[in-house]
């Protein structure tokens, strides 16, 4: 086996690409798969695996928070497709010496996260494993004329972010180094920690879109792997480029009193796990949406040239070309 | 944490029962969950987690076989609900040093198993883990008037098994101890090994039932955890009992030339992973079904008294009361 390429050498994205060869091409490459099960609706499916010490740690995350975050990650993938949730399944790999209380608290976190959306745990499996593993599959539904996918962006589209970025990364820093961020107000501080421990899936965005428009063309993705990754993936799928405005990227309140602006922008672009949505939509739709949904911010524009450039309108920083190489790799 | 009860102390069934408290009661306790998404159909969902050295081993199972078996286990759960598959998702936890070839062969096995049923891999996730973990969620559909559940058995129902039992357990024995079973014909031997490495989900049973009956009442379950477990679970859910006939339990051809009948019956009852179905249905349905589906065998009858008894019509063995305690426990 020594001369064969290893998973580690290939990396996550390259491995996924090899595995895509085994899947129907129309079903891969988005946050979730769309299955046509009725005339007017798609069934939407997404799955995530979380592993102890890779995706969570007792140092920064309680069992209930692990459950909450895993659920949010999956519901966020549904939101990224424009879908509302039906339910989730939970597969657990558990070391024998793990406390039963940990498992029950995990479930409490899952149910608490699902509850506002009237979704439920609809199935599961438990088995022995040397490492605590949580596998969640979320099921949702979306009307066929209101699907959001990565490949629908067109030059001229407005790029929106549905909220601040870098908050989860900042919250992690505060959990790991509680002596940091003395300049933050108590409320700012607790919001950053909350952003890391109890992020919300942006299903409220999907509800608002459904109220505003009976049908639409919107390209989108969630920012679980960072804002830069989301914009880059959308541009790659849609074969377009983007001009992002550095000064318009929404940052957490008070963050630049603690860290430099350059650091804050870096966390926003690459920190990941903010579980916001990036949406690319025609100007008229964007205008009415931003009026209704106050947290949404215009961060740039889709262009024809297939590169993603970060621009500074004040000219303080040179234009920066973003690439997928800097994104989060799981291996 | 030392004084808190551990997962190991509680055991799999007791842990599952505690976790059921977090789920809607109508969705748990069967092989898969039924979600009402349309007037005339249920969406059916089931999930399974497989862990290296717990559920598979390089010694007895190639990567392609792991993929095949995991897929069969999930499709078998769909069959146990009367459903035909729509697709599956695959979540993988992978050590960095695992060969890429192993992962691709796993996928080849999955796709090969799905192919006859025109189902596909519709989504997935890969991440780093210290232990190879395969999480599969299968999605299917069943007409509302043709669902099979565990709780529908009634006294007087005929109990059918859809094929031989103990073959997977016997195949495992031959893989671990190739010097054994010298009395077996080459074809018998290869069929037992095949039963372990490449078991088939009994979706052909579901197709036959759909052809024969537009609607029905059938209680059923798959025998992934053994024939005894399936009958016991059905009886518990339906609040009935069963009389099983020892001499009618279908055993693999040639098996009693190799091992004792007592051993063979033990493997049939408790070996597990045969992925056959146990069906409980009214006599007239059972008669037409057995005529159409030649592998199906009558193994007993549902009775009122809520115990499961294994009887020997020849009187050679005393009546034996079966209980869930002897079933397979994953912790």
Q: In short, what is this structure?
A:
Two copies of one chain form a homodimer. The first copy, chain A, is built from eleven helices and 13 strands.
Topology:
2 copies of one chain form a homodimer.
Chain A: H1 7-10, H2 12-20, E1 33-36, E2 41-51, H3 63-80, E3 84-94, H4 100-114, E4 120-128, E5 133-143, E6 148-149, E7 158-161, H5 167-176, H6 186-197, H7 203-212, E8 218-222, H8 227-238, E9 241-245, H9 255-258, H10 261-270, E10 277-281, H11 283-292, E11 297-303, E12 308-311, E13 320-322
Parallel strand pairs in A: 3-4, 6-8, 9-12
Antiparallel strand pairs in A: 1-2, 2-5, 3-5, 7-10, 7-11, 8-10, 9-11, 12-13
Helix pairs in contact in A: 3-4, 5-6
């Amino acid at each position: 086996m020594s001369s064969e390429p290893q998973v580690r050498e290939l990396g996550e994205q390259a491995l996924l690409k090899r595995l895509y060869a085994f899947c129907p091409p129309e079903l891969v490459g988005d946050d979730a798969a769309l299955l046509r099960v009725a005339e007017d609706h798609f069934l939407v499916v997404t799955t995530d695996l979380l592993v102890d010490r890779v995706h969570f740690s007792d140092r920064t995350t309680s069992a209930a928070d692990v459950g909450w975050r895993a659920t949010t990650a999956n519901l966020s993938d549904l939101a990224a497709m424009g879908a509302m949730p039906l339910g989730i399944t939970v597969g657990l790999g558990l070391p024998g010496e793990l406390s039963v209380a940990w498992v029950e608290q995990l479930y409490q976190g899952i149910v608490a996260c699902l509850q506002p959306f009237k979704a439920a745990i609809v199935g599961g499996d438990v088995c022995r494993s040397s490492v605590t593993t949580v596998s969640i599959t979320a099921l949702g539904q979306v009307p066929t004329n209101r699907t959001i996918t990565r490949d629908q962006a067109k030059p001229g589209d407005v790029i929106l972010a549905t909220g601040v970025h870098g908050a989860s990364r900042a919250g992690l820093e505060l959990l790991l180094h509680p002596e940091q961020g003395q300049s933050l107000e108590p409320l700012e501080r607790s919001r950053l920690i909350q952003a890391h421990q109890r992020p919300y899936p942006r299903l409220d965005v999907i509800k608002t879109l459904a109220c505003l428009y009976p049908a639409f063309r919107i390209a989108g993705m969630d920012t679980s792997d960072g804002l830069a990754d989301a914009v880059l993936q959308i541009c790659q799928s849609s074969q377009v480029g983007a001009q992002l405005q550095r000064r318009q990227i929404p940052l957490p309140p008070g963050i630049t009193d603690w860290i430099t602006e350059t650091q804050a922008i870096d966390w926003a672009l690459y920190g990941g796990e903010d579980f916001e949505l990036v949406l690319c939509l025609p100007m008229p739709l964007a205008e009415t949406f931003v009026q209704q949904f106050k947290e949404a911010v215009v961060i740039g524009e889709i262009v024809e040239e297939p590169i993603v450039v970060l621009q500074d309108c004040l000219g303080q920083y040179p234009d920066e070309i973003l690439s997928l190489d800097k994104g989060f790799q799981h291996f």
